[in-house]
Amino acid sequence: MRRKFEPALKRAEIERIRFHDLRHTYASIQIELGENPKYIQHQMGHSSIKIMFDTYGHLMKTVNREAANRLGDAIFGSDGSKMVATNKKGVADIG
Predict the structure, then answer these.
(1) Which of 31, 32, 36, 40 has the least C-beta neighbours within 10 A?
(2) What is the mean pLDDT of residues 38-49?
(3) Is 1 a member of any domain?
(4) d(CA 71, CA 33)
(5) What whole-number distance in Å separates Cα of residue 58 and Cα of residue 54?
(6) Burial class of residue 3, CB neighbours in 10 A (0-12, 13-18, 19+)
(7) β-pairing, 92-93 with 85-86?
(8) Per-residue pLDDT band at 41 (split at 50, 70, 90)
(9) pTM across the whole model
């Protein structure tokens, strides 16, 4: 996987991130969008819901449609034309 992933990052001019960071980002976005925790558990391959909650429980909160739309706008722009850059720690530079 790394043999393909790292050259793709370089071509996209994205600072080095770990493939595992994408996994965490995926789960975090699913939680922000209000996806069912059992679905997230299944998608992540966690053997129990406890593992999912222990790992991502701090992100759980009531999410409404407006919050989901704001997240999408922050990542892709309101018209879908931009992608948020991240720093070395994977923190979005939304500016």
Answers:
(1) 36
(2) 92
(3) no
(4) 8
(5) 8
(6) exposed
(7) antiparallel
(8) very high
(9) 0.53
What pLDDT does residue 39 have?
A: 94
In b/e form, how buried is each residue of 45-76, taking b as 16+ CB within 10 angstroms? ebeeeeebeeebeeeeeeeeeeeeeeeeeeee
How many Cα neighbours within 13 Å face the side chain of 14? Answer: 20
Asked if residue 53 is part of any domain, the answer here is yes
Q: Which domain holds residue 25?
A: 18-93
Does residue 4 belong to any structural domain of this protein? Answer: no
Number of domains in the chain: 1
Per mean pLDDT, which range of 11-15, 20-24, 40-44, 86-90 is the poorest?
A: 86-90
The Cα 16–Cα 86 span in angstroms is 10
Does residue 63 carry a pLDDT above 80? no
Say if 52 falls within a structural domain: yes
Contacts of residue 36, Cβ cutoff 8 Å, sequence gap at least 6: none
